[in-house]
Specification:
heterodimer, A: mainly alpha, 2 domains, two-stranded antiparallel sheet, two-stranded antiparallel ribbon, globular, B: mainly alpha, two-stranded parallel ribbon, 11 helices
Chain lengths: ~500, ~375
Amino acid sequence: MDALDLARWQFGITTVYHFIFVPLTIGLAPLVAIMQTIWVRTGDEKWLKLTKFFGKLLLINFAIGVATGIVQEFQFGMNWSEYSRFVGDVFGAPLAMEALAAFFVESTFLGLWIFGWDKLPKKIHLACIWAVAVATNLSAYFILAANSWMQHPVGTIFNLETGRAEMVDIGAVLTNNTLLAAFPHTITAAFLTAGTFVAGIGAWWMVRLVRRGEHDKARTYRSAVVMGMVTMLVAGVGLIWSGDWQAKLMFDQQPMKMAAAEALCETQDGAAFSILTIGDLSNSCEGVRHVIEMPGFTSFLATGDFDATIKGVDDLQREYEEQFGFTDEAGNPISYQPNLAVTYWSFRLMIGLAVFSAVLALAALWLTRKGRMTDNVWFARLGVLAIPMPFLASSFGWIFTEMGRQPWVVVPNPNPSGVDGVWLLTAQGVSEVTSVGHVAGSLVAFTALYGVLAVIWYRLMHRYAVEGIAETPDSPTPDQDADAPLSFAY
Amino acid sequence: MDLAIVWFLLIAVLWTGYLVLEGFDFGVGMLLGIFGRRRRGAAPDATAEKNRRVIINTIGPVWDGNEVWLLTAGGATFAAFPEWYATLFSGFYIPLLIILLALIVRVVAFEWRGKIESETWRTWADRALVIGSWVPAVLWGVAFANLVRGVELDANHQYVGGFLALLNPFALLGGAVTALLFLTHGAVFLALKTDGEIRERASVLAERLAPVTLVVAGAWAVWAQLAFSVPWTWAAVAVAAVALVAVVRATRARREGWAFTGTAVTIVAAVVLIFGSMYPDVMPALDPANSLTVANASSSPYTLQIMTWVAVALTPVVLLYQGWTYWVFRKRISAEQIPEGVGLSLRKIADQAWGSKPETPAPRS
């Protein structure tokens, strides 16, 4: 392996790892804010208990999301310095905006929320968690603006004199249609993750308590199930709508990713959507055999027309070769196709794994109808089983998006809505001065540390989830506490 | 004024914010290892544990917001000086990697420490906090001293000096300066924010540290001035010297507010010295022809203009609400106020997951 491969592995591992925690934070922060809002407005203690219970899980998760996010801010410079030189003029702007507009709000108001319980006036304390919730979502917008620009560069020119991409229109970068579709897709995926998490834990506890005959306590968890269910249903509709939009944009902007996602080797009219394909993993078209297909469906997804022509991988390779050259600077032939097996399967796993949440939501819809509760152990098991699935689906979605655009790090625009002349191969973006040893060493260090932290994170989340709602308040009685300088959270 | 110069100043401001704010929370983390040390083989001590929690809670509400100044400085460097960002972080690869690893364990240790009620668990969390504070406190000094000194860049602005070249005597002394400065800054902050035993111990330590910091920081600054810097930054050195002398006197007189102002001013002056001596370079090369300068490393005027508007609009707001946080949590903390821990035991006593089905079916009301 050379430094390029190692740097790609490192980016993949650190980013996928970071994004295990991020969707839960993005989705759960607003849900906790809603729980607290209901408590403040109704005074119903049940919602205070839920706020504190899910609030603790949010904080355990938030910490590791923040910790692994620091790396992201610097990794572009460490391993991808040539990329940074080429794109910094445009790519750096949303990153800096994210820090200024979102990270500061998130971190400061989270501190106020954690340490301000019983200290700040109720409504101001509530406003703090809302500030956190809004900021986490705003943060997603800016970082997706950066990523969408890589997928579909807009608002930029290639400056021959400086040899880099330069921003000419910030408005275009911040309203890139790729971004406008990716943002709702990412956010709804995050809400699906958090909704499944809340409903899954709620389902397990509700069933447990109903079976123990503790119906009053079970009712509190029923509220969590209902809240999670509604979140999942709304998010699910949003996911399908935004995903459909993304597919149509992808057909326009990244036809190679579309073809690879379908393992579509030859150009076809009325291309089928394949459910199962067998390949020999050699990343060539020769070994691909489609086993189960839905006729015309890929054409429909891409354009809304069952008979539309979809270009195949082989034809696109020839087009790219003519436009961007047959060989790289070292004289090796360039393959413009992404890894077919990874692209094909990650796309299907993204969709397939999200189905668990749909099943859980529908089961919850039925079992909690008209104020009912259930003692059905299978519902509890389904809840627990469903929890990890949207996490995995999100990961596969990103693996698909990022692996599917290879070998490009900045994808050239085949369509008129983008800009000309701005593109970069991933191989051109890697740092020139970092040695294999450096990248290998940091890859090992990050992977080992992240592995340990993942185990601790899981044990903490699991421990706090099975502990359930604390029946005793975790701070001293309010009158004793009145003079305390803060709510001692550490 | 040229926007590239404005951004050079803004990035200096962001680093100032970072080093002044996280400077004291690094210091507090470092002091946790001194005031909160566990004796080998000794039984867990409830008073000592409360004192540790006093120390950690002083920065509890603010450390995360302080750390964002670093992320903002990083993002702003990327946006305004892509060449600087690229060369600096690919060149200073190993120190940056070590800093990142330290910051990661530090972040999770803060949030996870109190979640489990176990002495072993807390011991590990404290180790992470102490190491996670010492390592960046030293390495930021090493990194900035190298920027003052100049580094080996080639004609393509790539850093080619290697890791060991970064560990020169001037840079190592720079690491000692930041470590001492943050330690003093943290001790003064603890004295200002606590009451009781920790306040007393922090005051005594600050009093002892202040003269040492004055001597070591003074030596480094004079070295920097004579060997690498420009004449006008003598003014920054003078301000730092006056401020540190004030710290020496204030710590003796137990004037905690003044002492803290003194250490903060010293850090501001240090950043002025560092950035002043670099200018007009952002990364001076040993061969001046290869230096990365404010002019040749910056983004296009359009990008700088956009970013200037964003920074001008948002930075005052950030200062406002971060200032408010310090106001909300302005009171002193003492061990008597620390409540019992609310962490769980790591292992739950297993109970039957589903129990037996109750006689009566679930109500369907």
